[in-house]
Amino acid sequence: MTNTKSIEDLIEGYANSEDSSFLIPNTTEDFLAVRPSGNPISVKELVGMFNSKDLVAESSSLVKTHKIEIYGDIAYAVFTLNEIFSYKGNQNKDLSTYTCIFKNENGTWKYSWMQRSQGTTDMKTWE
Amino acid sequence: MTNTKSIEDLIEGYANSEDSSFLIPNTTEDFLAVRPSGNPISVKELVGMFNSKDLVAESSSLVKTHKIEIYGDIAYAVFTLNEIFSYKGNQNKDLSTYTCIFKNENGTWKYSWMQRSQGTTDMKTWE
Fold first, then answer.
1. DSSP assignment letter at A20
2. Separation CA A35–CA A26 (nearest Å)
3. Chain B: closest CA distance from residue A53 (Å)
4. CB distance A38–B115 less than 8 Å?
5. Distance between the two ends of chain A, CA-based, in angstroms?
6. Could you give the domains of chain A?
7. Does ipTM surpass 0.85 in this model?
8. Which of B39, B74, B78 has its CB closest to that of A121?
């Protein structure tokens, strides 16, 4: 599998993982995600949020990959997801943009860092 | 100058640039910044925002660098700034967290990508 295909698969895997559990085996040990607030969250905490009765994931999908750049064993990608979920009964339809860093560890690409925007991305601004 | 010192200088330079104009000579041609909204903005547009009468920059400074990782000619860094500005007369005191990608072009390190969070970072979450 090419490096580009591996990164694309990591993006698709996360995009289609409504409860983010795809990340559990696909992140480096020091992985953190920066939330829209600017506060970091671990994978365990992130997936744990979906165990709350207040938060119900409905769907998640990739809208557009803006860029993938690979340099040896390091890569970064920028993409926008459409994430639909209910929080305390109120439905959110988020278009969130992510900047992610990937590392190739012993031949396997993994997420090593992630920052997520608010769910207010206007796709026209990315044309 | 070591690579680490070069990246630290780029972080300090941007941190202390109230109107972001430090970025003009210190970004790659394809640089974009992802705003808290998830929408991208060019350096020219970013610096242009401060030419608006509605937006008055008061101060900007580095609060904490969370990480710098360098791999050959690519690096990334995560840091939080304290940015104080007024918008239409209302003062904002933002603590915003940034994930930035840097590239070494012909011996000179430059910002090649940036994503900024909302101004709501709780520094306790980074301890």
1. S
2. 19
3. 24
4. no
5. 30
6. 3-120 (3.10.450.50)
7. yes
8. B39
